[in-house]
Specification:
With 384 residues, the protein is an alpha+beta fold. It has three domains: 52 residues, no CATH class; 133 residues, Udp-n-acetylmuramoylalanyl-d-glutamate--2,6- Diaminopimelate Ligase, Chain: A, domain 1, CATH 3.40.1390; 162 residues, P-loop containing nucleotide triphosphate hydrolases (Rossmann fold, 3-Layer(aba) Sandwich), CATH 3.40.50.300. It contains eleven helices and 23 strands. Strand 8, helix 3 and strand 9 form a beta-alpha-beta unit. Helix 2 crosses helix 7, helix 5 runs parallel beside helix 6 and helix 8 packs across helix 10. It starts with 10 loop residues before the first strand and ends with a helix.
């Protein structure tokens, strides 16, 4: 905007892992309102972009924090998200040490560290103390307990968790308070806590990425519908919802790679249950189609790209060639559907999802037909 508050067309470039949008001279705010809201709701948006005014007016530069190469999690974030499931309670001052960062998605039992061997101490992990560690500390004098705990707490450990609600030696609490380290207690059995905490940490540390596109659950198949602005994604999704399918996210889908084996997609809390449709504005999906029309999360099984018929150089007529779309180093089956006036896009996407479901079960219609065709040609050759 200029000093008089008037909006002017802005030239901008958006770089994303899948595509690049360049040199649009339309007003930026009306076009980016919904994606912007969805993107701003994320904690760590994985891309950056720059807005610049080509007419010399003061430019706008927006830098979104890129995804960390080595993601971390604060103790406070871990506690507030998982304290109920893990039955955690602080033993010393509330929120003391909650700013410390957990740098590895697993836990460590500090038995060797308490014995004085710190050469290969896993200081980046949550330290879990069970019956064995506490029994060892009880065998020491008060002075030795304080020295051993002091040596361990001097390291940049995230926090200490005491399992089975054992009574904690005073020397450990004093050393933790001095170094501002959180000490948490849980009634869970040590191994059960370790298993549950490891799963929670793996979820928190799973790689994450956002993709432009709407995601729908079709017959149990998670389908991401992509395409350029105005190609008909929203109309396609509305048509699928009318057929009884469920919306996962609109316009912007956030993915995380669960155990690096599969992609789970969801929407931001801000835009969940809502869709933006050109000409109608923002609509409430649950109010219109019912609570069953929305899913919180779904595994991604297929990516569908809607593309204008004239922009496709060669249209696949057989389906023998398999295409894949890469997200977080995982490859998902991908199909491109040509968009043309009069085509029922919702029906075509539905059929694509059902066909992919058949392929997942081991039945490939294109391959079956090709084999029948070859067998027929060979039979005719023999007959002649």
């Amino acid at each position: 905007m200029t000093n008089d508050g008037a909006a002017h067309p802005i030239q901008f470039v958006i770089r994303h892992s899948s595509f690049v949008i360049r040199h649009s001279h339309e007003p930026i705010l009306p076009r980016l309102t919904w994606p912007w809201l969805s993107r701003c709701a994320q904690k760590a948006p994985p891309f950056t972009f720059h807005l610049a005014n080509p007419r010399g007016v003061s430019g706008i530069s927006v830098a979104m924090n890129p995804t960390e190469k080595h993601p971390t999690l604060t103790v406070g974030e871990f506690y507030h998200r998982h304290s109920e499931a893990l039955q955690l309670k602080p033993l010393i001052d509330a929120e003391l040490g909650f700013g410390r960062r957990i740098r590895e998605p697993t836990v460590n039992r500090p038995g060797l560290a308490l014995c004085g061997f710190l050469s290969y101490f896993a200081e980046k992990r949550i330290q879990v103390m069970g019956s064995a560690e506490l029994a060892y500390l009880k065998s020491l004098s008060e002075k030795e307990i304080r020295q051993r705990c002091e040596s361990m707490c001097e390291k940049p450990i995230p926090c200490i968790v005491v399992a089975r609600q054992h009574r904690v030696p005073e020397g450990l609490l004093l050393a933790a308070r001095e170094h501002r380290i959180a000490v948490l207690s849980t009634p869970m059995v040590t191994m059960r806590f370790i298993n549950a905490a490891t799963l929670a940490l793996e979820f928190e540390f799973a790689p994450r990425k956002s993709e432009y596109g709407s995601m729908v659950d079709i017959h149990g198949m998670g389908v991401l519908i992509r395409g350029s602005s105005g190609v008909g994604k929203s109309e396609c999704v509305i048509g699928l919802l009318e057929r009884g399918y469920s919306l996962v996210s609109d316009d912007m889908t956030h993915f995380h790679a669960a155990e690096s084996r599969e992609l789970l997609g969801t929407s931001s809390e801000l835009t969940r249950n809502y869709m933006e449709v050109r000409g109608l504005g923002v609509i409430n999906i649950t109010a219109i189609f019912g609570i069953g029309a929305v899913r919180l999360e779904k595994r991604l099984d297929l990516v569908v790209t809607l593309k204008d018929w004239q922009e496709i150089e060669e249209i696949d007529r057989t389906g023998l060639e398999n295409e894949y779309y890469e997200i977080l180093d995982l490859y998902v089956p991908h199909v491109t559907i040509p968009v043309r006036s009069g085509r029922d896009l919702a029906r075509l996407v539905e059929v694509a999802a059902l066909d992919q479901k058949l392929k997942s079960a081991g039945q490939n219609s294109a391959v079956d037909f090709n084999e029948r065709l070859i067998a027929s040609m060979q039979q005719k050759k023999k007959d002649s």
